[in-house]
Amino acid sequence: MQPLISKFPIKEFYRGALTNGVTSEMKCLPGLNSLVFFDYSEMAKGTRYCFERADISADNNHTLKKMHEVGLVNPIILRVMQKTALNKDRIAVITAFSSLTDLIASSI
């Protein structure tokens, strides 16, 4: 796993006892500068990649389908595909909701 992604769970869940056998250099791809993180949490308001949480229904706090998020992610995926010649089966998008992951995958 990319060390920038595994850093938090290793520290918080495994108390530093787990080691990652992969380095950032091993995960570099020509044409890409770094990973891209989008933070949707309430705590991150005011940061570079923060978007409003208008997609939560007021009555039961269930997450609705987020087509605006799909619209943000798809151009990034397409750019990664163009710059690296990877096909969509080799690109991972990590989301908090499996339904959102499915929606993104079906729209590419």
Descriptive account of the structure:
This protein folds into two domains: 1-30, no CATH class; 36-107, no CATH class. It has three helices and no strands. The protein has helices at 3-12, 67-84, 98-107. α2 (67-84) packs across α3 (98-107). The protein starts with a helix and ends with a helix.
What are the salient characteristics of this protein?
DNA2/NAM7 helicase-like C-terminal domain-containing protein; 2 domains; 3 helices; P-loop_NTPase; DNA2/NAM7-like_C; mainly alpha
Tally of separate domains: 2
> What low-confidence regions span 5 or more consecutive residues with pLDDT below 50?
43-63
Note the main sheet: none
Helicity level: 25-40%
Radius of gyration (Å): 16 Å
Total strands: 0
How much strand? under 5%
Structural class by helix and strand composition = mainly alpha
CA-based shape: flat
Mean pLDDT: 71
> How far apart are the first and last residues' alpha carbons, in Å?
23 Å
The tally of helices reads: 3
Run of helices and strands: HHH
Summarize the structure.
Pfam families: AAA_12. By secondary structure, this protein is mainly alpha-helical.
Provide the fold topology.
Elements: H1 3-12, H2 67-84, H3 98-107
Helix pairs in contact: 2-3
